[in-house]
Amino acid sequence: MGWFVVLLYLIHSLLLFHFPSYTFSLCNPHDLSALLLFNNSFTVNNTIVDHYHPWYYHCPTNVSSKIVSWNKNTDCCKWDGVTCDTMSGHVIGLDLSCSMLQGQFHPNITLFHLTHLQQLNLTLNFFYGDIPSSISHLSKLISLDLSFNYGGIDPYSDELGMAMRLDPSTWKKLIFNASDIREIFLGGINMSSINESSLSLLLNLSSSLVSLSLPGTGLQGNLPSRILYLPNLQQLTLSGNVNLRGQLPKSNCSSKVFGSL
């Protein structure tokens, strides 16, 4: 593989020598197109940052949307929030947290065409609507954070009405396809239709899951106690789910599990 890196370097050097104005772009063309279409499907809303969204206290001071740096004529691997594989140019990380993005998720959202994504962070924006089943195309995910998106309205007054929603079918596909996922953060997502049977699917992640955060998601029914025995689970947060029932085992659960139940 070392010879391939040397070859790329030589090609890059020759291009710069013969074409001084040439700019080498690492970004994969397919991923570039998917990012641009995703960008065009949402708006940046600066007017609701301070007025409606209490979680913005957790965002950096003088926060600005990361997508303002996105220019189709530049290498997408250099855009704010984008991380690429240095060999293939595929986008493997996307962090658009605190970016003031607003809009509804649609079934044909191109974000989920980024099938090499390993880390996806969309927390603290204003997305709403059903999370499409195409999220399961992200089979290489290691970390997923969609928490605290409320469509630009006050979450305290509307509860889960304008939150993003995750149905059992999409949940099942995500768990089975992203079988190496280590971190799942879905705080504030409407998961009220996810029952005990659906939660039990997390047992399929026994070899990978480290952090599970589902506060204020409207979970109800019984919590499968076997989740507490997942061998690698270190953090579990289920606070704010007043209709979720269960009892912590007296012994034999993982001593590493901590968090808010």
UniProtKB/TrEMBL annotation:
Residues 29-43, 66-85 form the Leucine-rich repeat-containing N-terminal plant-type domain. It is a single-pass type I membrane protein. Keywords: Glycoprotein, Leucine-rich repeat, Membrane, Receptor, Repeat, Signal, Transmembrane, Transmembrane helix. Pfam families: LRRNT_2. The keyword Signal applies. GO terms for cellular component: membrane. It comes from the Eukaryota. SUPFAM superfamilies: L domain-like. Residues 1-25 form the signal peptide. It is found in: Membrane. InterPro entries: LRR_dom_sf, LRR_N_plant-typ, RLP23-like. This is Leucine-rich repeat-containing N-terminal plant-type domain-containing protein. It comes from Crotalaria pallida.
